[in-house]
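name: query_chain
kind: protein
chains: 1
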Amino acid sequence: MTTILTNDDGIDAPGIRALSQAVNGKGIIVAPKEHQSGCGHKVTTYRPIHLDRRSENEYAVDGTPADCTRLALTQISKNVKWVLSGINAGGNLGVDAYISGTIAAVREAAIYGIPGIAISHWIKKPLVIDWEVATRLTARVLEDLWERPIAPKSFWNVNLPHLEPGAPEPEIVFCKASTCPLPVNYRVEGDKYYYQGEYAKRDRAPGTDVDVCFSGNIAVTKIEL
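structure:
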């Protein structure tokens, strides 16, 4: 049985390498050739998709994360057990699920009846991600989730906290997803509008994935189609 690894940050991003390490190099990487963050569940149907086989177990796709999953399930492997997406450099909490390419990759798998896990790492600016820590936390949460039954047409969304040096080991907390909007603003220069989101200022109602992750724990939500 095969595990597919994908993402939306691109095949050369450090996050997918960390994800591969978390599963001890077991799995087939099928990831976008270029950065596709925020593309949601976009799929390519109007042009051919170039598939570059870099090695026996690594494919670069000139398309979106959802394209990667479609190709992986229909053209590359007929015996997929799991689809894992990440580790995304940035959180995918609450309503982010609607715009996230990371999450779209496992949602596409769920449509085909294949369970999936999306893993993201919140960035607490000005800190930078320690990918060794991210790998360790991902391996830990995967070990837990692989032992849990999950209903058809559903998948897991995981958000790792950004731990400061000396912070306690985070707990794995199963929680509900926030439904509050992101704080959105734009810097205006003439007729150009530059997006200015303040991710850390989003609503963090107690018990939601935003609050759990921002509090230093691993937030896990189950999302159904």
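note: Residues 131-145 form the longest helix (15 residues).
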